[in-house]
């Protein structure tokens, strides 16, 4: 066991985690050169195209130290984006140490600090790495100062590397062996294993990624899931070495895979503890937390005959992505669809893109919302994430919405605009912390619903790309939330209803009305488009009707003839408006809701 090292790579998004993992795999001979490609551990096309890691992946590497001693290195590559921080948390639970990467040109950023606190929570040994030293803008000394001041780690222990060129990779491997601790555990104790990840294989069912804390696991053992309460029989165990490498057993301290005939990822809970049926352990491994869905949105197929295809596609996605939740939903305008729960906006974006690309579906996605808690006058409390279920305002005693603690790292010259941006998004309090020369951390408490739409894009724009943003949910606070309905020709369009703070209701209603007025074709009668709260109109746009020139045939005479014809036309238009129905094309919904997410 003293020759095993379990570690993960943590950092802010785009600081080179996956590239460093590629170099470590190559240095240890984990892949033949002809089979190598960039982002080796990222299996999805979207991950490679966007250069992001969405799902953490693990690989076991054989490393021979300069003194000839052989080691087994279990590496977990984690995502950097705030939406997938639950993946990072599970990965940290399976390790004793972590490489924390700092970009030599950008320094310490928000997600780096957040991941540092997570790693300290699990008492991990940290080895700082300064990456991208090959860039012309790299400043190693400044990065060392940031590691000392902002992370509180030894700046002289930091290893300068270039994951792109491979410079310094051998030093990292030596550092892992020398600085990170070996795992502890008794191979003869009752089995206690942590499930930190899983993926679905269509031939073998769910393949579990596990870290054995105590005891030994072999094929044909009967295992019990302590949180899920299910029992299975193990078919195979082994190491992940880019392909599955079967072994006789997995012992305390080792990381590997388990095949046990599990049919769906939803049958198990990631973070669960496995033990043996005939020799169980007393207590599960502490620290388990469920992934929390914070953003909710309705998904409808572009054409109603694709509903069955959408159902199958979501079933297949959910087999691999246990964090995605969905339930049936329907809309008078768009037909049947699903109300889905996501971990954040990037998660929503990724699921939407996978549905469109992998299953060739055209989708309409409603404006995302968060979960509000509503106290009714009869003393009952309900949770609402769908505007369709918002209770009558006369029945509401009070409403609360989720707040987050946002941490924004920005260069000093952009502090003013950043604080103004927070105030625009209903920030409750703001504090500043000077981290190092020219870099400031702005901490702000604000509603999660305010971050959903354009906050991140605006932050990047006003800080010229140098601002970084991370958040953590804190609590629910009292708020003044209203439901805004959009009426087209006095008829409500349920898909376009949304929940918003009263201050922001008019602004967004005006945007909806203006976009709809551009997209809905003209009819033979005037069409009013209104945004309303209850019976109060707060915004309006009007689509002018087609109008025939009924006076064209007149060639003179008394003006009353002209008035008579115009009056007759006016009565006809009023009658059409009364009985005519407005045809809202699909592209109008797509245009309004797409702009809402941009």
What would you say this structure looks like, in words?
The protein is of the alpha+beta class and 598 residues long. It folds into five domains: 4-179, P-loop containing nucleotide triphosphate hydrolases (Rossmann fold, 3-Layer(aba) Sandwich); 192-276, Elongation Factor Tu (Ef-tu), domain 3, CATH 2.40.30; 295-365, Elongation Factor G (Translational Gtpase), domain 3 (Alpha-Beta Plaits, 2-Layer Sandwich); 372-479, 2-Layer Sandwich (Alpha-Beta Plaits), CATH 3.30.70; 483-597, Alpha-Beta Plaits (2-Layer Sandwich). 27% of the residues lie in helices and 34% in strands. It contains 14 helices and 31 strands. The strands form six sheets. It has an eight-stranded antiparallel β-sheet. A six-stranded mixed β-sheet has the order 2-3-1-4-5-6, sandwiched between helices. Strand 12 (236-241) and strand 13 (243-247) form a beta hairpin. Helix 12 (502-519) packs across helix 14. The longest helix is centred in the C-terminal third of the chain and has 21 residues, at 559-579. The mean pLDDT is 80.
């Amino acid at each position: 066991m003293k020759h095993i090292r379990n570690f993960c790579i943590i950092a802010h998004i785009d600081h080179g985690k996956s590239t460093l993992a590629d170099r470590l795999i190559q240095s240890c001979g984990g892949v033949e050169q002809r089979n190598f490609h960039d982002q080796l551990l990222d299996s999805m096309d979207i991950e490679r195209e966007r250069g992001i890691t969405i799902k953490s992946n693990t690989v076991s590497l054989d490393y021979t130290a300069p003194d000839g001693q052989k080691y087994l290195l279990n590496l977990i590559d984690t995502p950097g984006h705030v939406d997938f921080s639950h993946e990072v948390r599970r990965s940290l639970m399976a390790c004793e140490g972590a490489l924390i990467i700092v970009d030599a040109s950008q320094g310490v950023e928000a997600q780096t600090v957040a991941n540092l606190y997570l790693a300290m929570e699990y008492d991990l040994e940290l080895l700082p790495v300064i990456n991208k030293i090959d860039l012309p803008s790299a400043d190693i000394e400044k990065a060392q100062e940031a590691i000392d001041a902002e992370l509180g780690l030894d700046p002289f222990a930091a290893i300068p590397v270039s994951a792109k060129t491979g410079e310094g990779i051998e030093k990292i491997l030596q550092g892992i062996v020398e600085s990170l601790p070996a795992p502890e555990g008794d191979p003869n104790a009752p089995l206690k294993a942590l499930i930190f990840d899983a993926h679905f294989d269509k031939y073998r069912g769910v393949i579990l990624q596990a870290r054995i804390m105590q005891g030994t696991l072999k094929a044909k053992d009967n295992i019990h899931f302590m949180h899920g309460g299910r029992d299975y029989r193990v078919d195979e165990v082994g190491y992940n070495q880019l392909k599955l490498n079967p072994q006789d057993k997995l012992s305390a301290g080792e990381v590997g895979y388990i095949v046990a005939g599990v049919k769906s990822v939803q049958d198990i809970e990631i973070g669960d503890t496995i033990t043996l049926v005939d020799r169980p352990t007393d207590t599960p491994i502490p620290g388990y937390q469920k992934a929390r869905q914070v953003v909710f949105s309705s998904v409808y197929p572009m054409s109603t005959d694709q509903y069955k295809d959408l159902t199958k596609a979501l079933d297949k996605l959910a087999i691999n992505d246990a964090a995605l939740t969905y339930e049936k939903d329907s809309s008078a305008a768009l037909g049947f669809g699903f109300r889905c729960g996501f971990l954040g906006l990037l998660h929503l974006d990724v699921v939407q893109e996978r549905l469109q690309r992998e299953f060739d579906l055209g989708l309409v996605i409603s404006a995302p919302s968060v979960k509000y808690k509503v106290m009714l006058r009869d003393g009952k409390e309900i949770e609402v994430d769908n505007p369709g279920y918002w209770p009558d305002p006369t029945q509401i005693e009070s409403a609360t919405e989720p707040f987050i603690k946002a941490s924004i790292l920005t260069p000093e010259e952009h502090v003013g605009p950043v604080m103004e941006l927070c105030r625009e998004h209903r920030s409750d309090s703001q504090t500043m912390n000077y981290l190092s020369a020219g870099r400031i951390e702005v901490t702000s408490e604000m509603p999660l619903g305010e971050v959903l739409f354009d906050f991140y894009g605006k932050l990047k724009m006003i800080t010229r790309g140098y601002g970084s943003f991370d958040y953590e949910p804190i609590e629910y606070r009292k708020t003044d939330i209203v439901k805004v309905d959009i009426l087209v020709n006095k008829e409500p369009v349920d898909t376009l209803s949304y929940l918003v703070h009263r201050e922001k209701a008019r602004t967004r209603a005006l945007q909806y009305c203006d976009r709809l007025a551009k997209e809905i074709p003209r009819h033979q009668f005037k069409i009013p488009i209104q945004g309303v709260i209850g019976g109060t109109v707060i915004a309006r746009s009007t689509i002018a009707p087609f109008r025939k020139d009924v006076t064209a045939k007149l060639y003179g005479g008394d003006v009353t003839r002209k008035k008579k014809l115009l009056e007759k036309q006016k009565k006809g238009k009023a009658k059409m408006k009364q009985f005519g129905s407005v045809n809202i094309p699909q592209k109008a919904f797509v245009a309004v809701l797409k702009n809402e997410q941009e």
